[in-house]
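Structure ticket #2291
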Amino acid sequence: MGGKQARRRKHVYLYVAVLILANLTGCALQTIQERPAEVKPDIAEDDISVVQEERGEFKPDIARDKVPVDAKPSADEALLATALKYADPANPGRDYARSAQYLRRLVKEHPASPLAGQARILIGLLQETEQLRRTIDKLNGTIDKLNAIMEESKKVDVEIEEKRRERQR
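Resolution: structure written out below.
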């Protein structure tokens, strides 16, 4: 007889717990949805360059980054940014040699800059990339020569086979 009342109370507690949980979850969702509006700042100058990079608009950025190179406070940063633009694989007009020039200039003009160490590393990577590219070009040339030799060999084999057939007749 007393068991049914205890079960009803458990259901009431369960309903109350579910209602509290639903209210808390709803409040949490509202604050999560409100945050992006508060956190999202206006697009800054640097963000515009990132958006332009994603679209593949590299020429305007390179021209813009060349302007502050002569300004001393952030000249090292401008040199590094310009070098990175020229080295970016997504840049259709990438030029590793020009990128290395900007990095060498950064190391020469700003040896005490914290970016100089990074520039030295990047110079090494660019040189290694160029060396590997030359090696790949040489190997591709060798492959082309070997393919030509194989084609000639196939032609000679066909001619030899034709002569054997003629002799057998």
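Closing remark: The CA atoms of residues 9 and 15 lie 10 Å apart.
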